[in-house]
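quick q for whoever's on today - can somebody do inverse folding on this one?? i tried earlier but teh output was garbage lol. tokens:
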């Protein structure tokens, strides 16, 4: 099965298909003992709904597709080095992008991550049962006029649609976040036009 997934991943990568990343995620998660993936998902639409769900159902498994020190783009041309762990709840789906709800783990808590070797490199994750609690979120810029202005091209004259609802949940152990954590997260996202000011709970 893994060999077939590897072949599919190489094919998708050749044509730059977005699904390549999803196949790599499946391969990595398949290497983590005790994790069944693809997992049964529950839709939680909007930040208020998902925060309420997490309050009632803490400690859900987190897959870290971009651990601290890796590079990622957030709708920008250039990759940026991640000063914190970034990942998703694989069991909690965000209908805004039909993927797991995105999470940021405060920089001072990088030790919560564990890793397992897979055929596509290390799989980084936070096991179920952790004490990470939402302490804030980074809202996306939902101004369609600005998205049109900044993303329009010959191929896409109306620009990209604003990714309304694709917010990022910030987590900290036992809900404790330091002033430095707040500054690091704010400094990272404040320079990007496609996000609004970070909201702390």
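ok took a stab at it. sequence:
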């Amino acid at each position: 099965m893994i060999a077939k997934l590897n072949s599919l991943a190489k094919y998708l990568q050749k044509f730059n298909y977005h699904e390549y990343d999803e196949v790599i995620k499946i391969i990595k998660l398949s290497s983590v003992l005790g994790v069944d993936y693809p997992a049964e998902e529950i839709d939680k639409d909007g930040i208020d709904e998902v925060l309420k769900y997490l309050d009632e159902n803490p400690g859900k498994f987190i897959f870290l597709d971009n651990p601290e020190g890796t590079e990622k783009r957030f709708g920008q041309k250039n990759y940026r080095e991640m000063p914190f762990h970034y990942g998703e709840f694989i069991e909690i789906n965000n209908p805004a992008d039909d993927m797991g709800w995105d999470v940021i783990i405060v920089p001072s808590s990088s030790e919560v991550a564990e890793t397992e070797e897979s055929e596509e490199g290390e799989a980084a994750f936070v096991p179920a049962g952790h004490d990470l609690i939402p302490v804030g979120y980074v809202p996306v810029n939902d101004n369609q006029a600005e998205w049109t202005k900044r993303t329009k091209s010959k191929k896409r004259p109306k620009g990209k649609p604003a990714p309304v609802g694709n917010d990022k949940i910030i987590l900290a152990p036992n809900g404790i976040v330091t002033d430095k954590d707040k500054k690091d997260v704010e400094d990272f996202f404040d320079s990007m036009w496609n996000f609004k000011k970070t909201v702390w709970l």
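fwiw The mean pLDDT is 86. also The first strand starts at residue 42 and ends at 43. so keep that in mind when u check it
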